[in-house]
Each structure stands twice: as C-alpha cells, then as structure tokens.
Amino acid sequence: MNESNPPDGPAPGPFPLPAVPATSSMPPPVPASALSGAASSHPAVLSSNRSDDDAVPAIEVRNLSKVFGGLKAVDNLSFKVMPGQVVGFVGANGAGKTTTMRILASLEMPTRGTAKICGIDVVDRPYEIRKLLGWMPDAYGTYAHMTVVEYLDFFARALGYSGKECHDRVEEVMDFADLTPIADRFMDKLSKGMGQRLCLGRTLIHEPPVLILDEPAAGLDPKARVELKHLIRLLAEEGRTIFISSHILTELGEMCDSLLFVDKGRIVRHGTAQELMKGGKVGVTTYLVETSGDPLALESWATMAPDVQPTEVLKRGVRIEIPTEDTEVITLVLKRMLNEGIPVTEFRREERRLEDVFVETLGSLEEGAQN
Amino acid sequence: MAEPSATPGELRDFSHRLSPMLVKELRQGLRSKAFALSFILLQGGMIIFSLAAASDRSGGQGSSGVFWFILGCALLLVMPMRGSEALGSEINSGTMELLFLTRLSALRIAFGKWIAIFSQTCLLVVSILPFLILRYYLGGINVVQEIQILCLLLLASGVLTAGLIGFSGANHPLLRLLRIGVMVIGGFFLVVALGNMVMSFGSIFGTPSFSMWWVVLGAAVYATYFVYAFLDLGASRIAPLGTNHSTRKRLIGLLAIAVTFGLHFMGLPWGVGFTLVIIIALPLGIESLTEYPTLTRGILRPFTETSKVPVLGRLSAHLLAPGWHTGYFFYLLLVGLGALSLSLESSIDGDGWCAYFVGAAALAFPLLIIRLFFRNAPNSFLFYFVIQLAQFLVFLLLLWIWDDTSFRGSDWVFPFSGLFPLAGFFMGLNEESRWFEILGVAVVIFLLTTVVVLVTGIGLHTRMSRLFGLVSRKRKIETGEEEEESDESTATHLNS
What we know:
The complex is a heterodimer of chains A (371) and B (496).
Chain A: H1 32-35, E1 37-38, E2 44-46, E3 59-68, E4 71-81, E5 86-91, H2 97-104, E6 112-117, E7 120-121, H3 126-132, E8 133-136, H4 148-158, H5 163-176, H6 192-204, E9 210-214, H7 222-237, E10 241-245, H8 249-255, E11 258-263, E12 266-271, H9 273-278, E13 285-291, H10 295-304, E14 309-313, E15 317-322, H11 327-339, E16 344-350, H12 354-370
Parallel strand pairs in A: 2-4, 5-10, 5-11, 8-9, 9-10
Antiparallel strand pairs in A: 1-12, 3-4, 3-6, 6-7, 11-12, 13-15, 13-16, 14-15
Helix pairs in contact in A: 4-5
Chain B: H1 20-31, H2 33-55, H3 64-81, H4 86-92, H5 96-100, H6 106-138, H7 143-167, H8 173-204, H9 208-238, H10 246-265, H11 270-289, H12 297-305, H13 310-320, H14 324-343, H15 350-373, H16 380-403, H17 413-416, H18 421-430, H19 435-479, H20 487-491
C-alpha cells in the first residue's frame, strides 16, 4: 500500500467537498416552488439557498420500488437532494425509510426504479458509491475485544488508507467526534452516546460528501442528543449533503433544510419545516386555555360555543382551535369565556409542531383512504 | 482484562503491513477467552502426556495415541468450531454491512476470518513442537513421518475451519442444523479422500520415502481449493445482492475438476479421481441449482467487456451468470463431467450407471418442485434441503410399505419410488437387479425438470439478453458512438 492517497480514494484534507462528476443524462431539476408542499407525482426537488440548481443532485431517486414477498416497502418513490442540503426523512415505523436508505447505501437491490448518488447509479456501480457515501445505521455494531482507536484504525485501513495518512485520518476523526479521551476504551464498555459518536466518526473516515444517517439519535439521552446534533450541524456547515431519518421531529426541523414525510413507501408531504408547519389546516389557530376551575366544564363550554373547537383536554385546561386568524374574533372568544365565568388563568397561542403536522398528514391520508 | 495503551501513532507499525481483516480478527481472536482456554488446555494436556510418556517403559511410541488424540481434538474440533459463528456474529451484531461499505469484498471478509483462525491453529501447532521433539528423545518415533501427519492434520483443520466459516453465514435454525449435518458428511468424505490420497499418491511419485511429501503436496492443492470453495460459499451467502460470486466459483470448480482429470491421466487411481470429482461437483451443483438470479447491468457487463468476442461472452453468461436458470445448465455440465469420470473406469456396469443418473436426478428433483409449486420461495437453498428431507421421508414410507408382510407381493411400490429419485436411489441399493425400472421414471423426472427449468427460466434469459443490449448501448453512448435518447430507457434495473 502506498503512503499517499489511496487509489481512486478520497482527497486529503479536512472534509473537503469532492468534485461532483458531470453527467449528460441528468434532466434539469424541476423548480422547487412548483413541487414543495403536498405530495406530487413528480420527483420532490428539495432546494435551499445552499444548493446550486445546475449541479448534479447529491441524491436522486426515481420511481424507486422495493417489494419484499408481497409487501411493498417502497412504492414508486421519487425525490432529489441537491448538494449541501440537510434533508430529514420522516415516517412511522415500517414506512420504508430504512429500506430506502439501504438501497441508497447499495445494501439492498431495488425491485424497480433508479437511485443515484452524485449521478452514479447505486446498482450499476456499488463500489464507486461506497467511496462517496457515509452510512450510519440505526444500530451501531460493536466488536468485542477492540478499542475505539483500533476500531477506527481498522475501518480506515479497510477503506484504503495506510501509514501516516491512516493515522492522520483516525486522529482527525477522533478529534472531531471528541473520542480522544476514550481512545483506549474497549467498545463494549462504551455508553450509547459514545457509541453513536464513534459510529459517526467511522462514517466520516473516508470524508464522504454524502451522509446517510438512519435514526442517529435513537435511544440517546438528552445530553448525548445535543452533542450529536452539534456534530451534525458542524458537518452541514462543512457543506456535506446529509440525509437523515429520525423520530424526533423537533430536532429534525431545527437541523434540516427540508423534510420528506413518507408513509407506506410513498412521499406524502415535503418542504421546509416552516412550509410544512404553515400548511395543513389553513387559517386555523390553536390556543392553550388554562383554568383554575374544572377543565371538563371548559371543554363542554367550548363544544357549545361558536367559532371554537376543543381538541384536547389537559390536566389544567383545554387545547382549542379557532377557525380564523382574525384577532377580533379571537378576542371575542376570550371575552365570551370570561363573561361565562370561566376562571381563565392563561390564554396562549400555540405554534403548530412538526409532530402535529405529521400526525395530521397521516390522519388525513387515512380519512382519504376510508372515503 | 487490562486495557491496551496503544495510541494512534503506535498503530502505524507492523500491523499496517498485514490485511486489515486479519489484524482485526487476530486482535479479537487472541484476546478471546476461547483461544486462551484452548491454548492452556493443550499445553496442560501435553505436559501431562510428557510426564506419562517419560514414565512409560516403551518410550514415546506407547503414548502416541494420547498425543495425537489431544492434538486431533485441538486441531479438528476446537479450532474449527471457532469458525462456526464467524460470519453469523458479524451479521447479528450489525457490523457486516459496515464492512461491505469499505473496500473489503465478501470473500476477503470470509478469508480474513479464516486466515486469523488458521494462524491461531498454526500457533497452537508451533507451541506443541517442543513436545514432539521430546517424544523423539524418548525414542520409538519417526519424526519426518510425524511432521507429515501433522501437516495433513493442519490441512484438514484448515478445510474444516473454512467449511464452518462458509456455513456460518446461514442464520436460519434449520440451516444451522444442516451446517452440522453437512460438516459431518463432508468430514467423512474428507477423511475418505485424504485416506485414499495417502494410499494412492505414494504409488504415483518417486521412492517411498519421497512420495509422502507428494501426498502432502497433493492434499495441500486440494485443501486450497476446498478452503476457497467453502469461503466463497460463505461469501456468496453474506454478500449484498448485486454482487456476482457465481462465475468465479463455477470457473474455479471446473478448473479443479480439470486438474483431477489431468492427475487421473498421470496415474491417479479411478477411485480417488471419481471421488474427488464428485466431492468438487456436489456442493458446486447444489449451489448452482439454488442460486438467486440477480441480474443487473453491473453483473453482466464483464461478460462482454472482458471477452474478445462479445457474442461468446454473452453465450457464456447463460451458463455462468448467477441464478438457478443458468445454474441448471451448469449442473448438467457437471453431470456430464461426472459421467466422463465414471466412464474412465473399465469395470463400471449398467447398475453403476443407473445409480449415477438416478443420484443426479435426485439432486435436480427439488428444483422441479420449487419451479412448479414454490416459485416465490424466499430462500430456495433452504427449500431445496427441505424437499430433499421430504423425499427421504417418502422413501422411508415406501420402504415400510414394501417391507411390510401384509403388502408383500405388491411390487407396484417399487417403480413408484422412481417418482422420488432419492427414495429410488436408496431402494435401488436393496434391489440392484431392478435399477432399470427406477431409472425409467427417474429419466422422465430429469427430462421434466429440464423442460420446466427451460420454460420458467426463459423470461430470465430474455431479460439477460435485454440487459446485454442496454449494456452495449450504454457503452456506445459513453464512447460517443451513439446519442442518448432518454434516461428512462436505460434506467430501469431488472431484478426478478
């Protein structure tokens, strides 16, 4: 093995963006404005101010389907992620997230359709894909009787590094993921958070321009989640394309340029977190009303009152929806409440959360299916 | 366990000259309790043996049995068993896929695991050399002969380890059971083959004192093939879909058979030659019959790009590309080569030929059942053995009916067993004079399998031809001979 860069391997230096290969076959991307929001039969193109519309997509999925036996895990999925974007992939368990990610990582064969990383087909040239891709699975595997530094050294060498370059890569990754203090610790003695940091470190060894992270925050305590989120932010700032799935939507909303909601193997919504939170029930505002009295009495009043719809009874109050954003109407609702003698202690407008949008989306899909 | 104090700087040394997989496996293996325990037990056993041998009046000769028993247990049982979870443990801990995303191929992963265990086995052997020398001083032994036996034991240990690693990728409980069964049967054949070789190689080459080394050399050549074959079997079970393990495996298998034919013409007795051909062809044939047909442009491209005559390359793909639809024709080729090997024996009679073809039909029979009734079976390898097992149970039932006194005289059962070739095979052993009755039905089954495979596999062959068209079009586009019309037409991958 030579001491310089491995043949066809990644370029040296701290996480540089690679030259994106040009392909003549790439169709021009569809304007994002035309597609974001509700589900579309066209591929979802997720744009941000960081992306270049003329660039080859970092991830391109077209009419992708995967069938296991009789089960359609992925159903005609199409989307594009432009270089430098951070995209969240959101869905319930069994929605097809992991299968899609595994296909992108060339670990699973699609039944139909194509998936490309930086313009290279994952089925045609899986070995080339692996140089461009860092994949972090939902469960990181450990090796008994191996230390953190040995683990990273093994993967660095398995990825084609040797000698000083290998040593430098391992050191750089350990510094980045703050693994140096635990370098000599055996892997089976690591906490979940340390393990996830190590797994992320392994993912970065060959400086891949595209990262696919499957549930990286699953099972982490709040502190470890914050640390991991910080690392992902740093990677995004370096200009890497990050495709990430998670159940913790609030954090995804903060980290991601765009989000893809997927259900039963299909994209059901996509757009930025702001776009998605604005969408849904247009013109409906949600308020949290807290009372020192009986919340059930407040709920029965809300059921009878015009312009008010109770949605949830809480321990000290009720969450209500008012079908307008007109402040006069909202003030009138509050006045009526007080006039009825309801002891209101707090009346606060609630922003919609991504979780709500996601649940609403799934709910409306189910309703649509039933109708 | 004391934690090592290695720093990244220290990792640049010796280990970087070795394969990363070997280094990883050695790090894990040498730190494991299993190795430490087997090393200590072996040394303990050898010390006890030495003390016993020293007090034995007949010298070292009297205690030879104990010495070889202890060594045999360590080399043929303890060390190979360490390979039984080699690939399975990677799959279960979720690290196998991480390895695939490196530059390590599935075969290199399996080979790394094997070489690490084999190195530890060698380490054990080196550690007992002082005891071997001690035996020499105690008298009554031939050191050269013992070293030759030690070499053969080491080779057998390597093959057994590779076998267990090869089957360790199978996670299904039934396949785990099968793994043990195959290893017992395989071990039996291995011992027979090694024994035959020991008996026969000596007569082929040189003087008696020199010939044993030729035996060791011949055993090493075949052991190398079997180690490769087993490891590639494991590699093909763990490799991600879209990787071609069939072509290389089939070609190397054919080469091994060709070498055996060559040795036969150099004087290798027929018994050994035929046994070797069957041992090589049997797992290769079963593997070919049960392969999943993964057809992508990436897999088919080398057939046209590496061949100077693209048409020949395309044709060879219909015999060597992955999948049962090509595997069946490859199996027929193996049956033909086996028949050729059989024909080299002048004393072969009609019964022998019948037994051979009924056996061959019995092996192909499950494919007929799978193609007719279980076309969407998720794991045809497992299904194959389930059907073989079912055949065996039917055989027991037929044998019971046939042997039962109340059914005596109803010979209708006998030819009916031909519908279940394996059953027919066993029943034929009891009634050699009636082989031809079974053969008639078995030949029909053989022909029927061929027709069904042809009909159900025609779609896959057509897809291959279509993909070859796409490959050559893509190539022309890349070289600028043709302009691309639409990305869609070349975008779809066909995966049956």
